[in-house]
Amino acid sequence: MTTHKVMLLPGDGIGPEIMAEVRRVMGWIEGAYGVSFDVSEGLIGGCSYEKFGHPLTDDTLAQAKASDAIVMGCVGGPQWDGKTDYDKRPEAGLLRLRKDLDLFANLRPAMCFDALADASSLKREYVAGLDILFVRELAGGVYFGEPRGIEDLPGGGRVGINTQRYTDQEIIRIARVAFEMARKRNGLVHSAEKANVMESGLLWREEVTKLHAAEYSDVKLEHILADNCAMQLVKNPKQFDVILTDNLFGDLLSDAAAMLTGSLGMLPSASLGSGGPGLYEPVHGSAPDIAGQGIANPIAAILSFAMALRYSLDMGDAADKVEAAVSKALDSARTGDIWADGFEKVGTTGMGDAILKTLG
Ligand code: NAD
Q1: Is 143 a catalytic residue?
Q2: Would you say 170 and 211 are in contact if contact means Cβ atoms under 8 Å apart?
Q3: Which of 51, 229, 237, 243 is the most buried (most CB within 10 A)?
Q4: Residue 276 Cα, ligand 1 centroid: separation in angstroms?
């Protein structure tokens, strides 16, 4: 029997509640697919700080590195805001995990389930069936480039400086991820940059073009200026399959696209490195306003686990099955954040029940 080592890091706030539902889905998959999950559970964020004085311990990090996939809940909460040193904040645990695992590729699907198409800010016909995958570079670009800072100007006044910087190798490794993903999907990559006004954009375009010609000519490649991409995302979002972009543009474009799909409680993400385990987590935070009430939507966490099945555990069929079950469950049951007239209002466990019932 195949055994997959999975590390679960529920984290703070609603994390433990939504992760309990992930565990139930894992149990169903073990029975249905004849695999075994060797699960270890650790602390990250504020809860780790409370117990160990640090948001991610060396032990937990080592265990995470030794696993096949890491599924995280969420970190943070007002009880730690401004009360700890910067490197002891709950988010510092997550940043350390990303950095130590060299997770340079952030995958964010923007999927609109048919049942939720009316919850979008766009008309149903523009978003029903929407399925875009953003491949965002996560480890470079203007958020990290040097020089940076705020300086006094000699003649008075101040200047704020950040540097957009990408090497050819950084561009090639993220472009490769996008082309590989497109091969598993609908075979189309839009590469978004600003080659018209930025040298880093020009290099991006040149390197993506070269890699495409050398290794991925079976995939269709379109170059698109990032500002036009923003416009097209609200004009005709269904034209896209995979959108490849840098750290800054990816931040903005994927957030805009996320909102086309309805609720924050629905959105999963994956961060991949060049060999070690991937990190899978909901896009949302720890929702302190509803934590402990049993009403959080567990779907983003469950869909994050589905991404782990697909991208780290080579169980694409099981991932399809989980995603289809989520879609079907939404026809009857809804948590408060996505509830509408005519549907049964359920809590976190109730939503898990509906998904498991659909799985059979
Ligand atoms: P948030 O995503 O936690 O919540 C925003 C709103 O969405 C809240 O009203 C919340 O109740 C709702 N919401 C979020 N997830 C939901 C779910 N699964 N089901 C139902 N409703 C849901 O964002 P915030 O309030 O700005 O941040 C709260 C804390 O989370 C902060 O400490 C922040 O730093 C942290 N945070 C962590 C992550 C992460 O762990 N990756 C990401 C963002 C924010």
Answers
A1: yes
A2: no
A3: 243
A4: 28
